[in-house]
């Protein structure tokens, strides 16, 4: 593994942990008894976004994975077709 891969992986882990901690604090802050005690903090959005943002992230993530798999399969199929055409061309030439 290269140094870039390690740094990129570490950045992804840190981003994931940061998002998880922020989301957890946001959920705890949105509980009515806690919200009354601390009041409204400008750091957190309205509680309705607690459901909208994860839904959007799920849809976007699934769409990204589908696109990635589709494009990878197309590249593999193209490479196989080119290899088969090359083999057929070599057989014709013999």
TrEMBL record:
The chain crosses the membrane at residues 7-28, 48-69. It is a multi-pass membrane protein. Keywords: Endoplasmic reticulum, Membrane, Transmembrane, Transmembrane helix. It is found in: Endoplasmic reticulum membrane; Membrane. InterPro entries: DPM2 (IPR009914). Pathway: Protein modification; protein glycosylation. GO terms for biological process: dolichol phosphate mannose biosynthetic process. One of its GO terms (molecular function) is enzyme regulator activity. GO terms for cellular component: endoplasmic reticulum membrane. Pfam families: DPM2 (PF07297). Its main location: endoplasmic reticulum. It comes from the Eukaryota. Belongs to the DPM2 family. Component of the dolichol-phosphate mannose (DPM) synthase complex. Regulatory subunit of the dolichol-phosphate mannose (DPM) synthase complex; essential for the ER localization. This is Dolichol phosphate-mannose biosynthesis regulatory protein.
């Amino acid at each position: 593994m290269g140094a870039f891969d390690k740094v990129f992986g570490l950045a992804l882990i840190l981003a994931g942990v940061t998002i998880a901690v922020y989301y957890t604090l946001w959920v705890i802050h949105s509980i009515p008894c806690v919200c009354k005690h601390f009041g409204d903090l400008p750091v957190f959005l309205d509680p309705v976004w607690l459901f909208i943002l994860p839904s959007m992230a799920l849809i976007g993530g699934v769409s990204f994975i589908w696109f990635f798999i589709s494009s990878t399969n197309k590249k593999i199929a193209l490479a196989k077709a080119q290899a088969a055409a090359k083999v057929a061309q070599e057989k014709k030439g013999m």
